[in-house]
Amino acid sequence: xxxxxxxxxxxxxxxxxxxxxxxxxxxxxxxxxxxxxxxxxxxxxxxxxxxxxxxxxxxxxxxxxxxxxxxxxxxxxxxxxxxxxxxxxxxxxxxxxxxxxxxxxxxxxxxxxxxxxxxxxxxxxxxxxxxxxxxxxxxxxxxxxxxxxxxxxxxxxxxxxxxxxxxxxxxxxxxxxxxxxxxxxxxxxxxxxxxxxxxxxxxxxxxxxxxxxxxxxxxxxxxxxxxxxxxxxxxxxxxxxxxxxxxxxxxxxxxxxxxxxxxxxxxxxxxxxxxxxxxxxxxxxxxxxxxxxxxxxxxxxxxxxxxxxxxxxxxxxxxxxxxxxxxxxxxxxxxxxxxxxxxxxxxx
Length: 348
Prior knowledge:
This protein is α+β, with helices and mostly antiparallel strands.
């Protein structure tokens, strides 16, 4: 009798965007990088921790380039591939770009997982790319101790319509397009505490492409955008605050939450990444008195393939949120407002 394959999640010490290196550690690592020489056509680099690099090709086109990969947060190999590909393409959409093609990044323990299982991971990623209208045009694979999958994603955007995390203006409203809670649900999954409905909600959210990002590029009133992933809503709002030199107020009860997440959070289910996130940037966040730990965990919860955080002029916010909801993002909500600096985040 053949030995059954192990669960994908049992082969990984972390999963999804919870695999990210803690923001404080990452910041220390990047300090040792040499200062890059100035390049006239490099529109977006590493200066504000944005979602992707952007290179001006000509007066009408700029190339958006990014890469993203991680270890499995679910055991179904097809779902793992879908989630990882959706997450990688999101960085192109978050810059206002339209993907043009992708390259696969594959690291698999080939002596542990079957060719069929690994093939299903690749099929899941290819299915998402097909839905986005782009080919997987190549890639690279290695024999790895832990299963890893992701993409290099390339896209195009008009140079005048690039959206970054540096354009938020005082008075803007902040719109979040997807509910929070993906990290809590994935932690519950690994603990065997997530039912079918919770799993379905997790997969539906993490495999929904953020295609609306391209449609928001150049839209009146949209000033800045980023996607909310491994550093949680607080962390990515803080990156926007730093990049734009503004203060951001988040309304604690405003974000929609994935079904079942609140009960799990109240019961103490959380990821290690949420704790690391708070330890890294909590000094720059002001919380109200008596703020519950489980609420803080939701605001620092690492989102795998999370929603877009959009900074929009108040006169245009209603039109933007109506448009976003019409595109199928029913959980979109106004979650805060931008104020004058200094940079930081306050929760009310």
